[in-house]
Design brief:
The protein is mainly α. The chain contains 4 helices and no strands.
Length: 113
Amino acid sequence: MVKTFIVLLAVPFSAIGAFWFLYLLGYNMSIGVWVGLIALLGVDAETGVFMLLYLTWLTRQAKKEGRLKSLSDLQEAIRYGAVKRLRPKFMTVATTFLGLVPILWAVGTGSTS
């Protein structure tokens, strides 16, 4: 249940940040913006789930090998796992962003301009 709530809480915080960012940039709410928000929330949930799965696997592996004896060992394992998953997370977000760039720069009917 705790892992489920961690993922579920990450999504609203992403949405709040996205709405603040849209407000600061002065974007109008359009179909393109909603598509981007939906994509953001999906990628956020996906990367959260994969990160939790990987960190759970990594801590179990460290516990099995006897390397997880204190809180500092747990923190080190989490840091190691987060750094190890940084590139795959970045690539996932980058490909999604590149796929949405045409919507971002669209002009005319239905766009933000």
